[in-house]
Design a protein that fits this description.
Elements (H helix, E strand, L loop, with lengths): L1 H12 L2 H10 L5 H28 L9 H16 L3 H24 L6 H11 L1 H36 L5 E4 L24 H10 L18 E4 L2 E3 L1 H34 L3 H11 L8 H29 L3 H39 L9 H7 L1 H20 L7 H31 L20 H37 L3 H6 L2 E3 L1 H18 L6 H22 L1 E3 L6 H28 L19 H6 L4 H10 L2 H54 L1
Parallel strand pairs: 4-5
Antiparallel strand pairs: 1-2, 2-3
Helix pairs in contact: 6-7, 7-9, 7-18, 7-19, 7-20, 9-20, 12-14, 12-15, 14-15, 14-16, 15-18, 15-20, 16-18, 16-19, 18-19, 18-20
Pfam family, one: TMC
GO cellular component, one term: plasma membrane
Protein name: Transmembrane channel-like protein
Length: 689
């Protein structure tokens, strides 16, 4: 009996999986315990199997992984089992099924209420999921801006409207400023009076000055300290600041929530190059495509992706075989090109700075207040920023060819540089404005803490700059569609000139279009504090842009020859959007906590900075609550909280690494199982022979 009992063990030890496990352990003397451990784990799995089977039996028949005949038998068995239950359990099970059915119907009906549902599905069917992801991202920004607008309107604008018209027995409370110089409270907006020409209204509409400056669109209008609604006192400065924190927190959490799914997919997709090849070959087809031309394009894109992957592998092999002289030459060239890139960025930022200073100094010329020249001077910063955003990416795309990177890294580095140009230009503009606001030469800032002569209400001036950036960006998008895309389409269609045909149809570059709308969204986040109704303008802007881009895509553009997957593109869009949001935190934080508030306008005119409304409100709380809040803001609470946060972070990182190791082991087991099958097939064939 001993040989018969030992034979299966010897046979199992010949399996590739067992030999691989022995090599991994490095100890050939532990074969028997390893086998016992394997048997033990199998016994544990066998004990867990009945529990899983019981859970599966409790599920409805249609949700069980069985054929239709077995599902019908399971359903009949469940119905017969239900008849033996008590009335309470019958009612409970029936109500649970009815509730699930009602929720399912409501969910199905709510899908028809999704904005642009049919349009996005048609785009997905004609052009694939890559381009569809751009329009879904645009829909997300429309919803986000609409919710931000509802938030700011409800807590900031609506109370002022209620108090102005005396609704709900409401009144306005003003607090006279204390220890303030009279020169600091002088603010005379340049509203239009008397007979005004039409082009003056058009100029004011484009620049945010004139009649728009004294409306609810800008910060300077909300010069109210409190609103009494019946017997309730509404603290408008506190509500203004908390609404700002709320829309920033809402944007941050919403972006993080949407990006988690894409991050998980990218983490799994990029873990193994071999898996990437398998995904492209066996799961790369987009079954949403119904258009024949789009199907041919998808064939070419899959072929291009495989060629690109093979080229990258070949290039990696070439990089590994480089000699020291070649490495020195390439690194020296890359350093030189990066110096050129830094010089270009410095030139762009310096131009934006000088133009902003010039625009602020010349736009207040009262003799030129209503002229076209004054409007152009006011729009100079927006024009220079747009020009830098247009020229910079073209230069970067040309220079990246000489740096000898892999194709995938070329795309990422070029996009990173383009993102930096677009978003950093906004920061340079704000820095230029703040340098003018805080320009204290010749004791200009002594009475008020800022340049009150040039900027009596500097928050409204910053809001006007953000308003002009958003309007000009919208005008540029429309102008490109009307005066470049459609004429190019007509020329390519009706002109047989070789030069025109060489240009051909322009591709729909997803990354460039995404950077375009993220740039506008960053402007909206920064400008909402200085212009509370700016999210409403952004909502209308993106709503129109959706239809403009849809028409441009269908009639004038062709899909890119180098498309990106919807999952990876969605994750990339949200990461860049998160970078824009984090960039918006910096100027808003400086404006709220560092720069002195205007003493002539706004809800914070009785505070040195906007942040001071928080401690001023906490002082009115009971003593115990005050001590608790101030204690939470002290170093004694912050240091232990930071330590605990670091421990939790390290724990999560360790847990993620452990999960990653488990995933790697499972992949190895899948590979070994396939080898075991081949080994068994070989043994069976040998036995049959």
């Amino acid at each position: 009996e001993e040989p018969h009992g030992a034979a299966p063990v010897d046979f199992l030890q010949e399996l590739p999986s067992c030999q691989s496990a022995r090599r991994r352990r490095g100890d050939t003397q532990e074969r028997r315990p390893a086998l016992l451990g394997t048997a033990g784990s199998r016994g544990a799995a066998a004990r867990e199997l009945p529990q899983e089977r019981d859970k599966l039996a409790d599920r409805p028949a249609r949700e069980q992984p069985k054929c239709m005949a077995e599902k019908r038998r399971t359903r009949d068995f469940q119905q017969a089992d239900t008849e033996r239950l008590s009335r309470w359990k019958k009612w409970k099970r029936t109500s649970s099924k009815s509730l699930k059915k009602a929720l399912s119907e409501v969910k199905g009906l709510s899908s028809y209420l999704v904005l642009w549902r049919h349009d996005i599905h048609s785009i997905e069917g004609k052009f694939g999921t890559g381009i569809q992801s751009y329009f879904s991202f645009l829909r997300f920004l429309v919803l986000l801006n609409f919710i931000i607008f509802i938030l700011m309107f409800s807590f900031v604008t609506l109370p002022t409207v209620i108090s102005k018209y005396g609704l709900f027995n409401s009144t306005i409370a003003y607090i006279s400023p204390k220890n303030r110089d009279d020169v600091c409270t002088v603010y005379e907006p340049g509203g239009n009076k008397g007979l005004v020409y039409f082009y003056t209204y058009l100029k004011d509409l484009l620049s945010g000055t004139g009649f728009l400056e004294v409306t609810r669109l800008f910060y300077g209008y909300y010069s109210i300290d409190a609103v009494w609604i019946s017997i309730m006192r509404y603290n408008l400065p506190l509500a203004y600041l908390l609404a700002t924190f709320a829309y920033l927190a809402l944007s941050f959490l919403w972006i993080i929530k949407r990006s988690v799914e894409g991050f998980k997919h990218n983490l799994v997709h990029d873990a193994d190059p071999f898996q990437s090849y398998c995904n492209k070959i066996f799961a790369g087809w987009d079954f949403c495509i119904t258009d024949p031309s789009a199907a041919r394009l998808k064939h070419r894109s899959l072929q291009y992706e495989l060629q690109t992957d093979l080229q990258e592998e070949k290039l990696k092999q070439k990089i590994a075989e480089r000699r020291m002289e070649e490495k020195l030459r390439i690194y020296s060239l890359r350093i030189f090109i990066n110096i050129i890139v830094i010089a270009i960025l410095s030139g762009c930022f310096y131009s934006i700075y000088k133009v902003t200073v010039f625009s602020q100094e010349k736009s207040n010329d009262i003799y030129n207040a209503n002229s076209l020249v004054n409007l152009l001077v006011q729009y100079l910063p927006s024009m220079v920023i747009t020009l830098a955003n247009f020229i910079g990416p073209l230069i970067f795309s040309f220079l990246i060819r000489f740096e000898d990177y892999t194709p995938a890294f070329e795309i990422k580095l070029t996009l990173l540089r383009c993102v930096f140009v677009r978003l950093a230009s906004i920061g340079v503009l704000l820095f230029s404005l703040w340098s003018q606001i805080s320009d204290c030469g010749n004791d200009k800032c002594k009475p008020c803490g800022y340049n009150y002569k040039l900027y009596p209400c500097w928050e409204s001036d910053v809001g006007q700059e953000m308003y002009k950036l958003m309007i000009f960006d919208f005008i540029v998008i429309l102008a490109v569609a009307l005066f470049l895309d459609f004429p190019r389409k007509l020329l390519v269609t009706h002109c047989s000139c070789k030069l025109v045909q060489w240009f051909g149809h322009k591709e729909f570059e997803i990354s460039d279009n995404v950077l375009e709308i993220i740039y506008g969204q960053t402007i909206c986040w920064i400008g909402t504090f200085f212009s509370p109704l700016l999210p409403a303008i952004a909502t209308i802007k993106y709503f129109i842009i959706f239809y403009v881009k849809k028409i441009v895509l269908i009639h004038t553009r062709k899909p890119a020859a180098r498309p990106i997957r919807a999952s990876s593109s969605n994750f990339f869009f949200l990461v860049v959007l998160l970078i824009g949001l984090l960039l918006a935190f910096i100027p808003l934080g400086v404006s709220i906590a560092h720069i002195p508030c205007s003493k002539a306008c706004g809800p914070f005119r009785n505070f040195n900075t906007s942040w001071e409304v928080i401690p001023d409100t906490i002082i009115q709380f009971p003593t115990g609550l005050q001590q608790l809040l101030f204690g939470m803001a002290s170093e004694a609470f912050a240091v232990p909280f930071f330590v605990v946060l670091c421990i939790l972070m390290f724990y999560v990182i360790a847990l993620a690494r452990a999960h990653k190791r488990v995933v790697e082991q499972l992949r190895e087991q899948l590979v070994l199982e396939s080898r075991d099958k081949m080994f068994l097939i070989r043994k069976i064939a040998e036995a049959q022979r």
